[in-house]
Specification:
single chain, 4-stranded parallel sheet, 21 helices, Putative GTP-binding protein 6, ribosome binding, GTPase_HflX_N
Length: 519
């Protein structure tokens, strides 16, 4: 009994989640829209990002929050504290410098053999994942054939003995990265006991990278949600460590529950709180999206495989010096918006999205699916590909498969613009398909053609057209057009007291113009 109670007390990382539980409250209404803030963000070309805006709970004044109906209600500081508590957790991987041995199980035949790829390409991506973490390096790489990838220890007995001898005989190795999607907890423990160093899988490594790169509260909460399977496996492992006594114990801390039942309930409570916190932030993000649509800013979602150059391309298209691309996997986890001008002077918002990865752990895909749903509300998708990568076709298939799972409108998928980036690394490169654009975002090659293609697609998708309207100089028409349309040219006619104004205007805005200024 005392051992169980001590174990529960030691699990402070979990018990904090339900400390001071309160009855559920009605969710607060989102703050009222502030068009002037959105417009200022767009004109400034900075990240009027839903992720960055979503983490602060809206505008504050005197400790109160404005509701949509104009009333004031107290700000819920307790919810803010709950969210911060959910984000306090122990690291998944050891900190400090790590010298990693990369072990890649190569399946040469059978249903588990990967299609369309080669072992050296998979190893290169795995190495890049490890090197994404500060202070981590790969000091040894072992590609090991296996006929038994589904067995407990993955490798046959003889192969495992050879691996163990090599790893134990290399004192510089401090950890092993086994390049499989997920290791069962018993397998992980047995391999760590055999190799005498920490062992981690693709899921744990990618999840740790996500945690390191998550900047906004929403992204951090999404990572916390994706971590729950790891915490659940830790709970089962702790119960097994107690020799199974936790399952049979009748009473723990007076609750009448076994140790395992208590920990599972705490995890369910944690998951519920994370989901509620995410929903609060998503309501604010949806409000920003509605505000943006009211301003009728066209939205271009830029998607692609991780590290294909999406952020660099957006920086080249917008000229936004605040954007700082990083040459690493999953540098972008938050959907951010950046304003840019097309050749017609039409302002559009380029949405920088999370990158895709082949064999991305399923729970991570689920956790970030709501973020990717922003793509469904865009007017155009630009699919960026790294044509210098040897697996560029496989990467394309991974991206298209992920987009297909989002339930996007057929018209949006059919109008998608495919861009081949990093052509400066492939001398003499020319796309085979005529509709594909070749660019170098880093060197600025092919950007004029890309912007012209984006402009043409945006005008078709949003129902905009170019018109020349005659307006009186003394009236409010010209000022209205400057606010509601894109003015390209103004030809003043002094003798008539009027001007011919060439504009790009949407059908809805033109309808309002005709109602406001008939004749």
């Amino acid at each position: 009994m005392w051992a169980l109670r001590a174990a529960v007390r030691g699990g402070a990382w979990l018990s904090r989640a339900v400390r001071g539980c309160r009855p559920p409250r009605a969710a607060l209404l989102p703050p009222p829209p502030r068009p002037e803030r959105a417009l200022a963000a767009v004109r400034g070309g900075l990240g009027c990002s839903e992720g960055r805006e979503g983490g602060r709970g809206g505008p504050r004044a005197g400790g109160r929050r404005s509701r949509a109906d104009g009333e004031e209600e107290p700000e819920d500081a307790e919810e803010e504290e709950d969210e911060e508590e959910l984000l306090r957790r122990d690291p998944l991987l050891p900190s400090g410098t790590q010298r990693v041995c990369l072990v890649h199980p190569e399946i040469k035949w059978g249903p588990g053999k990967p299609q369309g790829t080669r072992a050296e390409w998979q190893v290169a991506e795995a190495r890049a994942l490890v090197c994404t973490l500060d202070g981590w390096s790969v000091v040894a790489t072992m590609v090991v054939p296996t006929k038994t990838p589904d067995k407990k220890l993955i490798f046959g007995r003889g192969t495992l003995e050879q691996l163990t001898e090599r790893i134990r005989g290399s004192p510089e190795i401090t950890a092993v990265f086994l390049n499989v999607e997920r290791l069962a907890t018993p397998t992980k423990k047995d391999l760590e006991a055999a190799w005498r160093v920490p062992v981690f899988d693709r899921f744990t490594l990618v999840l740790h990278i996500f945690r390191c790169n998550a900047r906004t509260k929403e992204a951090r909460l999404q990572v916390a949600l994706a971590e729950l399977p790891v915490l659940r496996s830790h709970v089962k492992s702790n119960v097994a460590h107690l020799g199974g006594r936790g399952r049979s114990s009748r009473y723990t801390m007076g609750s009448g529950e076994s140790f395992l039942q208590v920990q599972q309930r705490l995890l369910r409570d944690r998951e519920t709180k994370i989901q509620k916190a995410l929903e609060r932030l998503r309501r604010k993000r949806r409000l920003l999206g509605q505000q943006r649509r009211r301003r009728e800013f066209p939205v271009v979602s830029v998607v692609g495989y991780t590290n294909c150059g999406k952020t660099t391309l957006i920086k080249a298209l917008t000229g936004d010096a605040a954007i700082q691309p990083r040459d690493q996997l999953f540098a972008t986890l938050d959907v951010t918006a950046h304003a840019g001008r097309l050749p017609s002077a039409l302002t559009v918002l380029y949405m920088d999205t999370i990158g895709f990865l082949s064999q991305l752990p399923h729970s991570l895909v689920e956790s970030f699916s709501a973020t990717l749903q922003d793509v469904a509300h865009s007017d155009l998708i630009v699919h960026v590909r790294d044509v210098s990568h040897p697996e560029t076709e496989l990467q394309k298939a991974s991206v298209l498969s992920a987009l297909g799972g989002l339930g996007l409108p057929d018209a949006l998928l059919e109008s998608m613009v495919e861009v081949h980036n990093k052509v400066d690394l492939v001398p003499g490169y020319t796309p085979v398909e005529p509709d594909i654009l070749a660019v170098s975002a880093l060197l600025g090659l092919g950007l004029d053609e890309l912007m012209a293609r984006v402009e043409d697609a945006i005008l078709r998708a949003t129902g905009r057209r170019t018109l020349t309207l005659r307006v009186r100089l003394a009236g409010p028409q010209l000022s209205w057009l400057h606010q509601e349309a894109t003015v390209q040219a103004v030809d003043v006619i002094p003798e008539a007291g009027a001007a011919d104004v060439k504009v790009i205007i949407s059908d809805s805005a033109y309808g309002r113009f005709q109602k406001l200024f008939p004749g």
